[in-house]
Input
Amino acid sequence: MADNERIPTVIADEAHIVYKIHQAGSVSSSPLASFKRLTTRAKNANIREVHAVKGVSFVAYKGEAIGLIGTNGSGKSTLLRAVAGLLPVSSGAIYAAGQPSLLGVNAALMNELPGDRNVELGCLAMGMSPAEVQAKRDAIIEFSGINDKGDFSSLPMRTYSSGMSARLRFSIAAAKKHDVLLIDEALATGDAKFRKRSEARVRELRQEAGTVFLVSHSEQSIRDTCERCIWLEAGVIRADGPTGEVMKEYEAFSRR
Ligand SMILES: Nc1ncnc2c1ncn2[C@@H]1O[C@H](COP(=O)(O)OP(=O)(O)OP(=O)(O)O)[C@@H](O)[C@H]1O
Output
């Protein structure tokens, strides 16, 4: 497809993301010290900054699945959270079509409620009608496989293993069509059988026209799911292109 026929879904333009960490309990965090800082415009010595993403630019298009790779702490999850609108950019901009959905291992479900209630609540929260929720509920539970070893869907989620909850979260989010679906390591959490099933679902979601971003340390997941790959290192894009080529560069870097 020619570039001018492709529809952009996410545009990052020189995006910078800085975490500000307040180190509490010090004298200079008193109201008087804060007032002095305001009047003198001095920086608070007790606020540490972590510049996690440094001037990242890219355009993602409809129908693409993009893998985000890089060593620990390189800024992958931070970038994903900013695309989802959960973190502000400190300069530059990130534009996204529709409401991107972040499907992470931390997606909020209620631990005290059983899995099937969480499926209902999760679907309602994603904007499905009650009738749609009823129609999809059993299929979502079936897809998650949480009942493979007994009737777990009627038990509180606190009784689930971390893999089981991650699978249920993935299944809920994957039940809806997304303009932009952001997946953070979710595929790596399930077992091999579930991973295959979820990869197939990611492929379907792509065909349903959305854009998928996948953060994973599993080379296989990225290779099987994404045709494009962005390699982030120390908050900077080191490579952006076809998965095979970017992976090769990344592997050479990792071997050093
Ligand atoms: N909530 C936070 N507050 C302050 N700093 C943070 C926070 N979350 C992440 N960071 C810092 O931002 C940088 C990027 O972290 P991030 O989690 O985005 O990396 P990552 O590439 O996803 O890492 P990993 O592969 O280990 O999951 C790191 O230096 C990290 O310490």
